[in-house]
Amino acid sequence: MSTAQSNAVKVIALSAASIALLSACGEPKATPMDDEYAGNSGESVQSQENKSKTDGKAADNTAGGDATTKNHADDANSTTSSKQDTGNYADGDYSINGQYGPVGEDTIDVQLTVKDQNVTAVNIVGHPFTSISKKHQNDFAKAVPDAVVGKPLKDLKVDKLAGASWTSEAFNKALEVARQEASIQ
């Protein structure tokens, strides 16, 4: 094998290894704000004091005797909650943290109010890592109320809003968690 062929094989092997290692990068995540792994900035931690609420009462994560905590940060597709989406939602305020970016460096806190199965209010607090992320988060936060307020929570999803594709994906993951948290039988 010539030196050129040997170098080509090394480049291909390194490229394949890099792709395998980076394959989950940039995947958005979302967790309920009362989850111990929600957020990664001091601001997010402070905002977690306003935990998910249902009918004015804080959600109890130990309902049913299950106090097991899953590390959502290890799951690139994490949209988990201890509940299943039933398609029937309780009125209340729900707070979810969405995380995204090549290495999960950007986060958004999503506060959602649900009444009569519809979203009646939404507020986004961004925690950007860069000035570019800050612009996208601010533009998204301004555009999202027009896209979701007054719409049914069931199957609600936004497309790329205000040029913020990753922020939109993280928001959609947060909506999935909100549906799980708000679900009633």
Described by strand count, sense and barrel closure, the largest sheet is:
4 strands, antiparallel
SSE order, one letter for each helix or strand: HEHEEEEEHH
Look at the helices and sheets and give the structural class: alpha+beta
Flag low-confidence runs: 20-24, 36-78
Rg (CA only):
19 Å
Proportion of beta-strand residues: 15-25%
Tally of DSSP helical segments: 4
- Our measurement of the CA-to-CA distance between the termini, rounded to an integer number of angstroms, reads 66 Å
User: Percent helix among the residues?
Assistant: 25-40%
Count of domain modules: 1
Strand order of the largest sheet: 1-4-5-6
Please give the number of β-strands: 6
Mean pLDDT across all residues, rounded? 75
Gross morphology is elongated
Biased composition (Polar residues): 76-87
Signal peptide: 1-26
Protein name: FMN-binding domain-containing protein
GO cellular component, one term: membrane
Write up what this structure looks like.
This protein has 185 residues and is of the alpha+beta class. The protein has one domain (26-182). The chain is built from four helices and six strands. A hairpin with a 2-residue loop joins strand 5 and strand 6. The radius of gyration is 19 Å and the shape is elongated. The relative contact order is 0.18. Residues 20-24 and 36-78 have low confidence and may be disordered.
Secondary structure elements and pairings:
Layout: H1 3-22, E1 29-32, H2 42-47, E2 53-54, E3 57-58, E4 92-100, E5 106-115, E6 118-127, H3 131-148, H4 165-182
Antiparallel strand pairs: 1-4, 2-3, 4-5, 5-6
